[in-house]
Amino acid sequence: MNGALMKATSRFAIAAAFGLVVGVGSVRAADLGGNCCADLEERIAELEATTARKGNRKMSLTVTGQVHRMIMWWDDGHSNDTYYGVDNTNSSTRFSFIGEAKVTPTIKVGFDITIEIEAGGTSSKLSQFDEDGKVGAQLNGTGAGSFNAGNVDAYFGDARRAAFFIEDARLGRVTVGRYESAGAITTIDLGGISAGASASVILVNGSFLLRGAGGQYFAMNWGNLGDPSSNQSRVELLRYDSPSLHGFIFSASIAEAGDYWGTMLRYANEFNGVRVAAGIGYEKITDRTTSAACVTVAPAQTTCATGTGAGPSDLGAVEPEVEAWGGSLAVLHVPTGLFAQGHYLAADFGAGNSAYWAQVANKADATQWLIQVGITRNWFGIGNTAIFAEYSKNEDWGAGNGAGRTYSNAAIPGSTTISGVTGTDMTVWGFGVTQNLDAAATELYLDYRHFSADITCSAACVAGGTTSLSSDDFGVVIGGARVKF
Prior knowledge:
mainly beta
C-alpha cells in the first residue's frame, strides 16, 4: 500500500513539474486543491493538440536541408557592382522531409520531398540590370516591375524531389516520382569545393549579358555559352539503382512518356590511402515541346502548321533528339590531401525543339571539360581547408548549324543583336578556398572565376562587323556559407 501511495505521489509530482516547465502557471495549477489534476490534464491536452507530430509511428521522419547564401562581386569589363545576400544556385537553399520504414529485415519503403528556393534572389537569375534576379519585360516598360521592395518575395516554390522508393538490400532500389534521372555524369567532388565551384560554370553569372569593346550590351548572356544541365535533370520518372557491388553502382531511369531515358555506372573505393571516385553515363531525349498557341476546338488533331486542322502544334512536327554522355574521374591522396578531379561532357542535338539541354532547332553539337586540382587538409583542427585552382573549356553551346543562331532580346531595348552564330568558345579559369567548420556542419568559401568568349558567325556577327566577335571578359568573386541542418 505504501508503495502504491509513493508511486501515485511520484506521478503527481512529475505532472506538476511538467506543468510548470511548459508554462502552466495559473494560480489554480499551482493550487493543491481538488481541481489541480484536472487542470493539468486539460493544459497537457492543449499542448499536445498544438504540437507538430508525425502522422504515424511506423515511418521515420527526418527534416534536413541547408541555407546557402553569399555576397557576389562582378565586373563585366565596363561596370561592376556587389550584390548582397543572394542564394547560390550552385547548391541552392532547400529543406527536405525524408522518411523510411522497414517492411522486413531486408526491405524498406521510404520517401523524399525536397523544396528549394525558386523565386528571385538566386544567383543564376541576377544580371547587370537587376540584383533581385527576376528581370523580364519590365525593362521595356510593358511588364511588371522587378522586386525592388521588401516583404514581397515568395521564395520556396520548386519541388526538387517528390518521390517514394522501395529498396531491397540484395536487389536494389526502385524510385517513383520526381527525382534526378540517370544520365551524363559531371565532376564528382572529392575535394569538398562544390559549394562555390560547381561542375557547371554558369550557375552564378548565367544571366549577365556579354559586353562589347564599345560598352554595348550584346543580346547574348554567359549562360548561352555553357552547359545548361551540369547534372542529371529532375523529372517525373521510374528509376532503378543497384546495390553496391565491389564499389560499383548501376542506375537506369525512364521518364516522361518514355521519351527520356538514361543509364549510368558509378564507382568509389580506396586503395592504400588513395580514394577514387568515377562514373560514366548516357541519356537520350525525344520528348516534344508542346505549344498551345494554335489549339482551337476542332474534331481533328492535326498540326496547326499544315492548316488542315487544329491541335497542339507539336503533333506533326519533327521529333527532337538529344543524346548526351559524360564521364568523371576524381582522385584524393588521403595522407597529403592532394586531389584532382574533373569531367568530360558531350551533347549531340538533332532537329526539332526541346526544352532539354536548351535545345533549339539546328543547335550545334557541344562539348565541355573541367579540371580542378588542389589540396584539402585539416590544418587548424576545425575541419578541412581546401585550396584549389580550376580550368574549363566550353565549345559550341551557343552555336547553330547551317546559317547559325541569332540572338536578339526585345525585353532589353538597345541590346545588340548577334546574327548567324556558328561557333562559340568559352574559357573559364578560377581559384578559391573552402573552410569546413565540422562542429557546425558549415562550409565557408571565397572563390574567383574568370570568363572569356570568342564567337564565330556565318556572316557579319553584328551590323558593320566581321565574322568573328570577342566580348569583354567577365570576372566574379563569391564569398558565402553553406550551413547544413
